Amino acid sequence: MQTLFQMPHTPKVIAPPMVEEVLGADERATLIAHIKTMMAQQNAVLVAHYYTSADLQDLADATGGCVSDSLEMARFGHAHAASTILVAGVKFMGDTAKILNPEKRVLMPDLNANCSLDLACPADEFSAFCDQHPDRVVVVYANTSAAVKARADWVVTSGTAVKIVAHLHALGQKILWAPDKYLGDYVQRTTGADMLLWQGSCVVHEAFKAKELAAMKLAHPDAAVLVHPESPADVIALADVVGSTTQIIRAAQTMPNREFIVATDNGIFHKMHAAAPGKVFIEAPTAGVGATCKSCAHCPWMAMNGLRSLAHVLETGVNEILVDSATQQKAVLSIQRMLDFAAQH
Ligand code: SF4
Questions:
Q1: What cofactors does the UniProt entry give for this protein (predicted)?
Q2: In the prediction, which pLDDT does 29 show?
Q3: In sequence order, which residues have a C-beta less than 8 Å from that of residue 200 and are 6 or more positions away?
Q4: Domains of the chain by range and CATH?
């Protein structure tokens, strides 16, 4: 039975304006060549999230890096021999890379690239919340700061959350969950676990609209609906597949449908087109009555990553991610617990 809990101090997060890098063909080619040279000189590897620009995703692929979700980005950076990890994504991904690789240099194109889930879960308030519930196992989503991870027993991603919480539930554990209320609600309904939910949300996924999605389904009756579980419950209820970004791409490859309606950041379409050529991907609706999104279907923090800023950090060494040793030593335990669990299951 879920205990309803309204976290009184969950901060309201205002998304920044969307500013995407625009490059001409000559500048793009010059920057890519320059970055490749510097990466080779500095023994650097680029890991990029699916929500970053096509330019960054293509560069990661072309230079032996990876384009993936946050779980695989963490795994890849950890296993790779490079001494510098370039993380194109948002701050918690850079933090995770540093926590797993304290001996490596971790650089990010823009340290202002954050996440509404991370920002909605300040470490001090979260720690006080945990102190009020010592009988609960603390499970936090990867989209959190290093300090919040250090306070947690487990870190999970959208691809591992259901299995890990189901595992803990089977052991008779009660859960304290943060920060995404929608993903937490989905995990609670799927597993039946007793969960207290922090009340954060993703500004991108929260904006998808069920009524308009139902109308879109009627207009595209043969399309499969693929939904990320950071979306509201009424949107998830319309899904044929609910899953992480990697699971969404896999569904597009393996399902027989030609058309897909996709409720996640539209940056993923670049990989979906490459993984399932000839198929048609339609952005799930974010407009309609009550729509509040300013960044409909694209994350304004992910958009802060670009080739110019990546070249700048390689030229100057700025934007290095640093995590203090005490925090790193605690946070690595909760992340490693997830990686070990994922490897075993
Ligand atoms: S898409 Fe949502 S969850 Fe992902 S980084 Fe942006 S705000 Fe955070």
A1: [4Fe-4S] cluster
A2: 98
A3: 10, 13, 116, 117, 120, 121, 178, 179, 180, 181
A4: 1-203+299-345 (3.40.50.10800), 205-283 (3.40.50.10800)
